[in-house]
Design a protein that fits this description.
Elements lengths: L1 H31 L3 H39 L2 H28 L1 H8 L7 H14 L2 H17 L4 H5 L1 H19 L2 H26 L13 H16 L2 H13 L5 H36 L3 H28 L1 H9 L6 H16 L1 H15 L5 H25 L1 H26 L6 H27 L1 H4 L3 H26 L4 H13 L1
Length: about 525
């Protein structure tokens, strides 16, 4: 149950962050809608985040956490701290120069990553300005990723999961307090990003110190452990960052259509809620758990953790998939349709959300399956799977964009995620790293059936409540509350009745959470 409680901790704090993120995005949609300023800022916000997820959260965590866990289990805390300090020194040096070069060459970099902006000189210039402001966010958040990896390896998940809350609080404060004084929404939001990065880094420095690891900054040296880390990171840049690379491709293509960058951003924010609560939370907890169990020779316990991770993730993901795919428009209308964003924009976002939702189970499973390789210090195999999925994403995006516009980009991302998932499963099974147990095989069909029934009920309920979603803001909110609460209760009852959910296990989890 400690594994489940850790997931609940990460998921709980991530949920708070994502809810505040919705408040942030509601304010953004109200202020700038899906116009040129929104497009320029979303690119400026996305670029440092994309590099962060590829180099820091993706490749770095995949390589660092197993090595750090090995030091902890085999050589002790002092050795692990020394390794972390050397890693911090190398990371800070490399990222400082990378950030400086990126800021200096931003006009050319942006031309490559968002070529469609060049048609509108004013939007292109604004995007360059805003991205130069936001790009140092990469530096601070990469160091925060190192600190998060340390804390997670020590099974201290709360601080790392809570840190992103600061981003949304600072953002909301900037939009509510600072923006009325300046009248420059793009620049206010860009500076809020940088301030949030600094705040999260300092917060995690304190949390790591309280865990007994006040890191020093030694002279950078390429020790054997650092060389091993870098060797593991090279393939991990693509394997753990496959989704981000797919999003980069989508951004390049979407820049050719007016408003498409914004439509995809808003849709991405909605489906990122279950992805963050489930997939990312499970992946964060699973990697150090598998790494430490494998290093201790507890292979059967590691296999059980992987089975339970898949089971619990799908128990939560499949109903979310059904809801987002079948009733996306009510969600978008309530969250974003106000101020500068009208019904036409919300419909465009809803179609993109529907396409993204088709790939949600795959996005989550990738987060769970990749740690089974990373924990064994194998980043090459996931690289091969990721590389093929990226190629497929590019081909399908280019093929579908002239037909479906921005929706084709979202659909291509979903299809490539499914390909990546299937390839990972086949590779794990072939090597004996994934053996589904009787409990998982028995519960999965029940979870799928319960989710399908709930989704069908939501579809009919949304159609019956359409006049509410065309009415006042209060009526829209009431309609969405009815759908969400009805869906949650209905799914819980169905899952329990069909045997997809063990009520005793769920009650034990709740009791232990309250007692912790």
């Amino acid at each position: 149950m400690a594994f489940v409680r850790s997931i609940a901790t990460v998921g709980g704090y991530t949920g708070i962050s994502r809810i505040l993120g919705f408040v942030r995005d509601i304010l953004i949609a109200s202020v700038v809608g899906a116009g040129p300023i929104a497009d320029a800022f979303f690119v400026a916000f996305k670029l440092p985040n994309l590099f962060r997820r590829i180099f820091a959260e993706g490749a770095f965590n995949a390589a660092f956490v197993p090595l750090f866990a090995r030091h902890l289990e085999q050589q002790g805390k002092a050795s692990a701290q020394f390794f972390a300090e050397q890693t911090l020194s190398i990371m800070l040096t490399a990222l400082f120069f990378f950030t400086a070069v990126a800021v200096a060459t931003m006009p050319w970099l942006l031309y490559v990553l968002a070529p469609g902006f060049a048609v509108d000189g004013e939007k292109y210039e604004l995007a360059v300005q805003l991205t130069r402001i936001t790009f140092p966010y990469l530096l601070f958040m990469s160091m925060a990723a190192l600190l998060s990896g340390i804390l997670n390896s020590l099974y201290r998940f709360a601080a790392a999961a809570a840190a992103p809350i600061l981003l949304n609080l600072i953002f909301i404060g900037a939009l509510v307090v600072v923006l009325p004084l300046t009248g420059q929404p793009g620049h206010v939001m860009a500076w809020a990003v940088v301030c949030a990065g600094i705040a999260q880094f300092l917060f995690l420095v304190i949390a790591t110190g309280r865990a007994g690891l006040w890191l020093r900054l030694p002279v950078p040296r390429l020790t054997p452990d650092i060389k091993r880390l870098l060797k593991l990171m090279i393939p991990g840049v693509l394997s753990a960052g496959a989704l981000q690379l797919n999003l980069i491709v989508g951004m390049i293509i979407a820049s050719q259509q007016q408003g498409a960058v914004s439509f995809l951003y808003y849709a991405d924010r909605v489906y990122q809620l279950p992805l963050g609560l489930i997939g990312i939370a499970f992946g964060i907890v699973l990697l150090p758990d598998l790494a430490r169990k494998l290093r201790a020779g507890a292979d059967s316990a590691a296999m059980n953790s992987l089975n339970r991770g898949i089971e619990m993730a799908l128990l939560l993901t499949l109903p979310a998939t059904a809801a987002l795919a079948l009733v996306p428009q009510p969600i978008i209308i309530v969250l974003f349709e106000r101020g500068a964003l009208g019904r036409e924009g919300s419909e465009a976002i809803a179609w993109a959300l529907m396409a993204f939702a088709c790939g949600l189970p795959a996005f989550v499973l990738v987060k769970i399956l990749q740690p089974a390789f990373f924990a064994r210090e194998d980043t090459v195999t996931p690289l091969k799977m990721a590389a093929l999925s990226v190629v497929v994403n590019i081909v399908v995006s280019v093929s579908l964009f002239p037909i479906l516009g921005h929706v084709g980009i979202a659909l291509a991302t979903a299809l490539s995620a499914w390909l990546n998932t299937v390839l990972l499963i086949l590779a794990l099974r072939r090597r004996g790293f994934l053996k589904t147990d009787a409990r998982l095989r028995g519960r999965l069909p029940r979870i799928l059936f319960a989710s399908s029934l709930m989704g069908g009920a939501l579809w009919f309920a949304a159609a019956a409540l359409q006049t509410w979603f065309d009415g006042s803001q209060l009526e829209r909110i009431a309609g969405l509350v009815f759908l969400v609460s009805g869906g949650l209760v209905g799914y819980a009852l169905l899952a329990n009745a069909l045997g997809a959910l063990d009520r005793a296990e769920f009650a034990e989890l709740l009791l232990r959470r309250r007692g912790s």
